[in-house]
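Components:
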Amino acid sequence: MNGRFTPGIAAILGLLAIYVFVAVLAPWIVPHNPLRQILLLRLRPPLTYSPSAGWFLLGTDDVGRDLLSRVVDGARASLMVGALSVSVSLLSGTVFGLLAGWFRGWIAIVVMRIVDIVLSIPAILLAVLTVAVLGPSFANLILVLGLTRWPRYTRVAYAQTLQVATLPYIRAAEMAGARAPRILLRHILPNIAGPLMVVATTEFGLMILFEAGLSFLGLGIQPPYPSWGSIMSEGQNYVASAWWMTVFPGICLFGVVLCVNLLGDWLRDRLDPRAQSR
Amino acid sequence: MLRHIAGRVGQAIVTTFGVLTLVFFLMRLSGDPTLLLVPQGASAHQIAILRHQLGFDRPLIVQYVAYLRQLLQGNLGMSLVQRMPVASILGSRIPYTTELAAGSLVVAVGIGIPAGVAMAVWRGSLLERSLAALVFAGQSMPTFWSGILMILLFGVVLGWLPTSGVAGLPSLIMPSIALGALSMASFARMTRIAVLDELSRDYVAAARARGLSLGAAVVRHVARNAAIPVVTVAALEIGNLLAGAVIVETVFAWPGIGQLAIQAIAARDFLVVQAIVLFVSFVFIVMNLLADVVYAVIDPRIRLSS
Amino acid sequence: MGIMKTAFLAAAITTIGIAGLIGAPAPALAAPKTKLTVDLPNDVATMDPQLQWDTDSYSVYRNIFDNLVTRNTSGKIVGQVASSWHYKSPTEIVFTIRNDIRFQDGSKLTPADVVYSVERITNPAFKSPQLSQFDEITSAAVTGPNEVTLTTKSPYPVLLAQLVKLSIVPKAYIEKVGNTQFNLHPIGSGPYKLADWQHGVRSVLTATPGYWGGKPPFEKVVFRVVPQDATRVADLRAGVADIVRQITPDDAKSLQSDHAVKVLAVPTERVGYLFVNAQWGPTKDVRVRRAIAMAIDRKGLISALLGGYAKPVNVVLTPASFGYPTGIKPWPYDPQKAAALIKAAGAEGARLPFLTSPAYPQNIIQAIQQMLDQVGLKVVIHQMDQASYLRDRQGTPQEAGSLAFGLWSCACQDADGTIWPLFHTGSIWSKYSNLAFDKAVDAARSTLDAKARMADYHTAFEILHRDVPGVGLYQADAIYGARDQLQWTPTPNEAFFIMDMKWK
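Structure:
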């Protein structure tokens, strides 16, 4: 983890690629319909075989759905939540940060005060409140996560823009008559993209966990559709009696979050010249 | 310096006011508690009567002004659900929240910082990788799952710790671990980077050239300077530890303000939610101000005005 | 890759290990004889018995206060503060008040306290959410040395059933300390008094010496607040709690292997039902509503998901309530016929919004969804928080969606408290209107003649059966987990009387 491209980091990237691959191909590789319930076969342990329905490799859940199919299909929802909500907050957060850092003055004051306000309300409370107002749906879930997390990017983008904007070549470009949008996109954005990517990777894992937390509170992905968080929250009452309901989605979730965290750390080391100087 | 502090306090007031306004309108847009209070068979007319008595049929702006006026008099109001002063409801929960925040900070700092130092000093070794795995593992599990697993193992199977509730120090251990594990990684990460940063400086190389061992160098020079970013993380994490503990508190039946907040939102007990958010954002702001001051103490080179 | 592998392995081994170990029974603890510890899912909202009546608050404060009348273990209404009563006229009922009851501050409970209790809860300025249960009462007066007369607007047959929920509060004390203090430091005439109340943590009750109704079975009762189902079960198994309220049927099943604890269950007056919107969307067509009734396999739901802790019902009411009709058969479970009806109505693939909140059992809702999808409908679940759910469910027919699952109890064990609010024209819950039905339930509400009321309800339920504005699914059990040594028979109205419990 010293910023060089090691076999370790290759393995992490490989594992993440497998996750994405499985998520994308989910509809074609699930052994059963992930929504199909067989009430008579509920809470069966892994490696259950039924003459009429076939194998349930990871067992079944509390309404008799195939857990393997749900975990595979759930990868899609969980990764989508992570990717989309990070995109929303990355995009809006960066735009605000760039604007505040470039124009400074009252724009910066207003933007950074709003950042302070949103940051000082605990994210989970803000999310629960917003879901209560907007009503539950996948789109709203993304919106809620995006709305509560953008300030983290704004802070980074703002600080970085302030620094970069004073660099001589930016000043030169400005003198040469380049317009603000062009300077921001062509010159400043590439310079601040690194730190933003570091934030985005760790946030990706956090968002997946956040969705699990909201599912636990009954405000996540709408049933009967699976996400790892919703499968686990349905299984929370069966941690002892039907451990498979939480263990398998838990391991998948754990793996992804661990991978992106390690990836984020590696990226950070790579981008920070001081940290790798030794 | 004084001007700087005055400026920061001014900002804090603006922020607090913004938080208040945002939460006030979000809450009101989400409905009101009347429907949750009446018995199932109540008629539309009976509900309208109660709503009127509780004052929720007034225009939003009127309710808002009334709330601000009341707040300016230092009055947090009465809970409409529990029918007692919000201040006493909140007051009874704050000690528990503080205990849990302190407990989890001890876990996070106690494991995160040594792990971070070790990860920097023995960089690239097997030890670094194992520590990284441990530290990140804590951050990669949903707390409702790790919490229930701990309860079953240490509470039911082994019988070492109380399964839930508050009963002295033993009952604080499991919730602190569950919550502390979440911020442990932040501390480890910041510490590692800060220590690496310091270790790469010339003065450390010089000290080592003089024959000082690596361990002594870390203790003597690095720790002091590396403390600054760590203090920042601590200030940022406080907000999460206070009300982000919603799920941990629910699982362990820990009566802190996180659990109170989620119950108050569910019950649309507006004044309680507003008071909690007010409290948390206040603590958050104060902590960040304090972090500023601590920087100045740790490192006099940093002027407060910068 | 070392990191990942180690971490994965550790996580997997720990969790599977714990799951395996959990099968082993917890060490049996010596039963404390003088203290009872109870886990409730929620904190007491108010100790003032006239401000809240949710099941958890009621479980605690009902042991501090005596009510005017109560129900015995077999469900019959019997006196408590009142020793007897008779109707002077169809709108006047005279109660004889016991004269041997004292409040916990030593003062005597008098007829004036009874009158005060009625006037307090029915005074709109007091803002009691329970007002709607008592607003038929127009006056209360002391009419003799030990006599109180209540007058109602019109003949009101459910009065006694409602009065089961009226706690008698001390007039002098409340007038002295005020409502806020009374809520924090309540004084009643019940078997227990409040010793300590830590909000959100626990309420501690201690026995009242010389209680008029006998010696309370425990010196001390501690009610703890434990929101999470799994945690309450863990508390019970670890011996932290002696009895826990509200556990799931699956947990009940897994507790059966533990010999230190037992499951106490009783069929309640709570009915699980499916609301079907008769005034909006695809379900406006009665054929679609009938098809829905025929598509649901009640017995399958009960045996698979409720572990037998429920009984099928024929209508939207339970046999624990007055007015449950005999002789009305439910629509038979017949998915083929249901599919044909839906085809005939041209509703194949119609989208039906299904409103719900985390307060209801998710597996039942998802199972119903699949049953309806299998006969050709397209059910879409909208899960929101309880406050938003109530807002939409009680809103306009359009807002209320096509379907909703409910668990209804009026805590009065009478059809009037169930089908009147659910289906009467103009009620906030009702998305249905039938004047013949309205006439029948209105008539049953305004006569004291039990036979005539039964006949009216029979008519009403026949209409509901034809029109299907709702489908009765099951009579829900209240399920408690308790230490094996605890003896108690729970009751259909979910009352939690410590007086009825004892150690073996």
